[in-house]
């Protein structure tokens, strides 16, 4: 099984995923961003883009990597990864379904003011214009398709530990 934590930057995906992993037995965190970083390291580089998700190989490589890891280890993969393009989500979820991999899709949501405050106040990564640029695309995806495709966990007033507990309980209860 895969527990996919979606949502925009500042929603708490990375922090929450580590906490979820501790609450779900036999689980591991797999950050699909590492697949994108591998593609970014190809020399000479792939065609220029502002987001590695736009490269067609990224989506099937995420599916194949997750499949291979699950075939090897079993258990559950907790995957913190923002996917805001509906077509990309469809490709990934269909690819996982072809391999009979169950996906529990969660969106960590927070209101725009909270997200902006978290991004601007991030003491680990620092303020990031890149991360701020995704606030409106996230809001659009949430309005048009994303929230209908997942269980939404509003993290506006939750700690990461509280969000992780809600996710783990939802997964355990089916």
How would you characterize the overall build of this protein?
There is one protein chain. The protein has 174 residues and is an alpha/beta fold. It has eight helices and five strands. Strands 2-3-1-4-5 form a five-stranded parallel beta sheet, sandwiched between helices. Helix 3 (58-73) runs parallel beside helix 4 (86-98). The longest helix is centred in the middle third of the chain and has 16 residues, at 58-73. The N and C termini lie close together (12 Å). The model has no long low-confidence stretch (mean pLDDT 96).
Topology record:
Elements: E1 2-6, H1 13-23, E2 27-29, H2 33-40, H3 58-73, E3 76-80, H4 86-98, E4 103-109, H5 112-120, H6 129-132, H7 135-144, E5 151-154, H8 160-172
Helix pairs in contact: 1-8, 3-4
Spell out the key features of this protein.
single chain; 174 residues; alpha/beta; 5 strands; 14% strand
How far apart are the termini?
12 Å
- Number of H/I helices: 8
Total number of beta strands = 5
Structural class: alpha/beta
Rg, rounded, reads 16 Å
Helix content: 40-55%
Largest sheet: 5 strands, parallel
Tell me the β content.
Answer: 5-15%
In short:
By secondary structure, the chain is of the alpha/beta class. About 50% of the residues lie in helices and about 15% in strands.
